[in-house]
Specification:
Structural class: alpha+beta
Number of strands: 6
Strand content: 15-25%
Shape: globular
Number of domains: 1
Protein name: Immunity protein 35
Length: about 100
């Protein structure tokens, strides 16, 4: 079982790996994490949007993701629904398909 610190590192490494594709510095703020017994859900934003809250810098298509604490596996979710929908789908065993 991974520690919270190890899970956060996996999440931050994942978000950093997306920066070249997105063309922005990205962050997954710890205050937006949702902790569950099986892992932690993360939401990421461009750093400039998070710091300024100016919607001109808001990313489109930045899907939330889960890092499972048993394996460190990253589960990416979609953007069609809110995060609560994906949490319920994951917890019911319907996601990922």
């Amino acid at each position: 079982m991974l520690t919270e610190k190890e899970i956060i590192k996996i999440a931050n490494d994942y978000v950093t790996s997306l920066e070249d594709e997105v063309g922005e510095t990205l962050i997954a703020p710890e205050e937006l994490m949702i902790k569950k017994p099986y892992g932690i859900y993360f939401i990421y934003h461009s750093k400039i949007y998070y710091e300024t809250k100016n919607s001109i810098y808001k990313l489109l298509g930045s899907a939330p993701f889960l890092v499972e604490n048993k394996t460190g596996k990253i589960i990416e979710f979609g953007t069609a629904h809110n995060l609560e929908f994906y949490i319920k789908e994951y917890e019911s065993g319907r996601y990922p398909r």
